[in-house]
Every structure is written in structure tokens, then in C-alpha cells.
Amino acid sequence: MSTAHADLQARLSGLYVHPVKSCAGLAVTEARLMDTGLDLDRTWMVVDAQGRFVTQRELPRMALVRPQLRALDVVLRAPGMLALHLGMNEVESPTRVQVWGDELAAWDMGQVAAQWLSDFLGRPGLRLARFDPEVTRLASRRWSGDIEAPIEFADGFPLLLASQASLDELNARLGAAGHPPVGMERFRPNLVLDGVSAQDEDRLAELRITTAEGRQVVLRPVKPCARCPIPNVDPASAAIHPEVLATLSTYRANPVLEGAVTFGMNCVIVQGAGATLRVGDAVAADWRFE
């Protein structure tokens, strides 16, 4: 279907990549879309001594670990620490990791990275793992349906979509209660839409994004994103502000997920892996009717 006949016209106003799961993300102007989501999104993951993934839920200071992507390496920086350089194509030894219910083969990034994370985060025995591209991990077919959607270390789906209007609505409610506004980075999306109304992303059947090269990317929102307490973590200080999730809970209990508080939609890729998405790309979509 052409974009001219779409129910909704919007634009891609934000792109975020999170190289290390649950550490700070990067706002980027362009990103390559892979089969698993945006390139290098959740490619690395912090695990404990038993190989289980750890997040800001237990260690809010992970929000202060800030990555920088360069041609040959990923640089991690944190307050009071020397920069940690990770070779883009370097790993040290095979390992096993667990992320939610999945146990996977992965690559350990070595003792220097392990000590750096353990020192900064204040927990002995932490390790840094890299996703093994030879491993196949799939999103739940209960939600992806006929789409086989590979993922790396993301919680469950290749992409997370949110809208600026939904954030604006939350900030208006926070402001009315005397609380300061929050930024989109707290919600850790990959794609942000502008030009839509609050919560429109919940009601879309598919998104068609036209790239600068004229390619069409087709994404399907499949599952509302249930929210844990991570949005309560201030990304600038790692301080906890419970009013964020508390405010969301007053109006975002979602019957689709048995009353869980949701913000944003998890998406699978229908078409377009290999294309480059850019901030400003045109987006067309149709409403989902069920």
C-alpha cells in the first residue's frame, strides 16, 4: 500500500542504540537495521558470576556506564573510571549466559572488562559477555505469529517503538503533580515517532518507513511493553524517582497484559533488514482493528 493512502503519516524523530544491555543508550542520527534489530543494539551484556544477566533493576549505577561507538572499538566510560576499550571484533573465551528464560552460548570479554565493571558497579564477579552471532535466539512466537524474529540480548523483541506524544502526556501528568519531566532515554526505545497522538503506537497494524535510498522498511508492533522500575532510574545520577512508574500506573494499566503498566510497543521486522534508518525518515501506518 502506498504511503499516500495510509491512515497515519508521521516521521522518525529519534533513534537509540543500547550497545550494552541496561547501560546508557546512544541517540544516533542513523542506524542500520539488521535481522535482530538495530546494529549493535544489546550486543553486549553484563552477567553475574553464574552467567545470569544483571540490569538497572538490581544495579541502578549501570545507567552511568556510557558507551561510544567508533569504527574499531566500543568505549565505555563511567564516573571516576578510566575508559574501557572493547575491540569491535574481539572476544576472549566461550561462555554460557542466561537472559530471562534463555540459556545461550556467548563470548566472554575478558578479565579487564570484568574487573572494570565489578569495580564501578560494586559487585564482585561481574563479567561482560558478547552475543555469539552463530546462536539463534527468537522472539516469542506467541506474539510474533508468522514472523520468525531473531534477537540478541534484548528482553524479547528486535525493536521497541515509542512516540513523543506519549512521553509528552506522561510529562504533563508529572508536571501537574509537581514532578520534573523525564526524557525518552528512560524508556530505552529504539524508534521514536513524531506527528502522532499519545498512545497511537498501541493501535498500529504495521509501519512503513521510507529510507533516503528509497527502500521500504516494514515493522509490525506485536506486544505492548510492560514496564519494570527501570524508568524510575535517573540516567544522569542513577537516583531512583518512583513517581515515574507510579504516575504511569494511574492511566496505563493494559488489559492485554492482565493490567501490567505499559509504555511503547515491541516490534518485529517484516521487511527491510539491511536498510539504513535515519532521523527524519517518513513513516506511514494503518490502524489495527481487532
Topology:
Layout: E1 8-17, E2 26-28, E3 30-34, E4 37-38, E5 44-47, E6 66-69, E7 73-77, E8 84-87, E9 93-99, E10 102-108, H1 111-121, E11 127-131, E12 137-138, H2 141-144, E13 150-151, E14 159-163, H3 164-176, E15 191-194, E16 204-210, E17 216-226, H4 243-249, E18 253-254, E19 260-271, E20 276-278, E21 282-287
Parallel strand pairs: 14-15
Antiparallel strand pairs: 1-2, 1-15, 1-21, 3-4, 3-20, 5-11, 6-7, 7-8, 9-10, 10-11, 12-13, 14-19, 16-17, 16-21, 17-19, 18-19
Notes on the protein architecture:
- By secondary structure, the chain is mainly beta.
- It has one domain (3-287): PK beta-barrel domain-like (M1 Pyruvate Kinase, Domain 3), CATH 2.40.33.20.
- The chain contains four helices and 21 strands.
- It has a seven-stranded mixed barrel with strand order 1-15-14-19-17-16-21. Strands 5-11-10-9 form a four-stranded antiparallel sheet. A three-stranded antiparallel sheet has the order 4-3-20, with no helix packed on it.
- A hairpin with an 8-residue loop joins strand 1 (8-17) and strand 2.
- The two termini are 20 Å apart.
- The model has no long low-confidence stretch (mean pLDDT 96).
